Amino acid sequence: MSFGPPPTGFGSAGLPAWVSPTGVEQALSEAKAREDWAAYFGTLAQSRLFFEIQKDKADTTPSATHAVFGHDPRVTGGRIWAVYTQGMLPAPEPHRVFDWSYLEWFAKVWKPTDPPTIVVNPGSPCEAFLPSAPPHSATWAQYGEQAPARKRSMRLQTLRVGGPLHGSVAHGLACGALLCVNNGSFWNAMAWHGNGYPGERKRLREWWGITTRHEWQNYLRDLLACEQHSSTWDFALGLRRTIARDFGGHVDTGYWRQAAANVIRANSEGSIAVSEDGVTKTDPRPESEVEARIEGVQRLIGRITRYEARMRADGVLDENRYVPSVEAWDLGRASKMARWGLGARFGTLAEAESAVVQAGRTAALSYKTWQEYSAGYILGRSLHFDEEEFGDWYQHMVEAHRILLSDPGSPWLNIPFR
User: Fold this and answer.
1) What is the DSSP string of 301-362?
2) SS3 call for 279
3) What separation, in Å, do the N-terminal and C-terminal C-alpha atoms of the chain show?
4) Angstrom distance (rounded) from CA 191 to CA 189
5) H or E element that contains 117
6) pLDDT, tens digit (0-9, with 9 covering 90-100), for 363-376
7) Do 198 and 99 meet the contact criterion of CB atoms below 8 Å apart?
8) What is the band of 282 on the pLDDT scale with cuts at 50, 70, 90?
9) pLDDT tens digit sequence for 345-401
10) What is the mean pLDDT of residues 230-248?
11) Which string of b and e fits 67-101 if b means at least 16 CB within 10 Å?
12) Please, which pLDDT band fits residue 285 given cuts at 50, 70 and 90?
């Protein structure tokens, strides 16, 4: 079956070689070149296909689909429905946004008033023209309907073009790579579309309670300042760093627990401070409150040491090493929050890029290596979510950690941490 006229000029002598952004576009281009449409649609059926939507209507009724159709003079009548694989999406613009679905969906929702032709990746060597009206649409829709279960495998995904591979922006993006590997997204996608405009809005609303630009800015600022995790975690880990510095590195857990109790009691005895404004007096804290805090911190110390023991067994931490801080937990999320906000159009590409660079710079001041940074992130995530179950919240990060420290294309193996 013919799937429409080829773009003028493709394949002509003298044109520069085309570099496909990802393996998806490469597979589509190769299948098209040999006219293997079964392979073409088999690849397409496994891929998210993005299409432009009307932003104002998506804001008003996000549950509905508000597609924006285009024009192509090569098609009779000119009207087309342009769809894009992830690697072919244009850079984000303030008022141009996208949603996505799978191949078979486009045949199911088509109406007689819609364009008669769907164009996949317009203007590229992997472009294809699909008749969108039945019964012709059944020819390509069947590949989606019969596609194997679309499961996101945990693997490193990299943009070959369209995303930085080296430099300060790439370093900051790599700080969010654990989440990218876990979520199946491109680690170096600075021009972020993610789950599409409605999906990114939903992500921020449901997971963070963010519905406005101001709220996004506040969360991003706090994450970059490493203020979005428990101060009690900082107290416990900071105390261990102090003990290690004073006593040559090794910190006995019993001594750490007792030191925590001593510091909490000392800080709870009340004090008198004299300044230019006069004398300020603080009363001692109630004994029951002090003991409850001591118990809580000592329980936390136990959790930290057990997670670290497990991370050593799993190869995340080297023997006799410990996690210096959990700032990575905030900085990794900051690297992603910058992009999520761009995808939701709460921020601009320039703002997101600046935040990503800042996340990378702060991480380089707090840690020495990617492995140390990763351990800090995994501990913070586990303390926040896992409740010592060593379940998916922990295991998925360990798997992502191993991928990032073993895949030859990993940014953690190709970008110096400092």
Assistant:
1) HHHHHHHHHHHHHTTSS-TT-----SHHHHHHHHHHHHHHHHHTTSS-HHHHHHHHHHHHHH
2) strand
3) 55
4) 5
5) strand 117-120
6) 999 999 999 999 99
7) yes
8) low
9) 999 999 999 999 999 999 999 999 999 999 999 999 999 999 999 999 999 999 999
10) 94
11) beebebeebeeeebbbbbbbbbbeebeeeebbbbb
12) confident
Dihedral angle, C-alpha 54, 59, 62, 64, nearest 10 °: -40
Token pair recorded at residue 196: 């599409």
The closest of 137, 320, 120, 332 to 220, measured between CA atoms, is: 332
Spell 6-16 as b/e; 16+ CB within 10 A means b.
ebeebeeeeee
Dihedral sign from CA coordinates of 191, 197, 200, 201: positive
- Backbone dihedral angles phi then psi of residue 186, each to the nearest 5 degrees: -70, 125
**H or E segment to which residue 287 belongs:** helix 287-313
Non-local CB neighbours of 134 within 8 Å, separated by 6+ positions:
107, 110
Residue-by-residue DSSP string for 142-181: HHHHTPPP-------B--SSSS--SSHHHHHHHTTHHHHH
Where do the structural domains in the chain lie, given as residue ranges?
Answer: 23-145, 168-229+327-414, 231-239+248-306
Separate counts of helices (H) and strands (E) for the chain:
17, 8
Is residue 243 within 8 Å of residue 255, measured between CB atoms? Answer: yes
- pLDDT at res. 64: 86
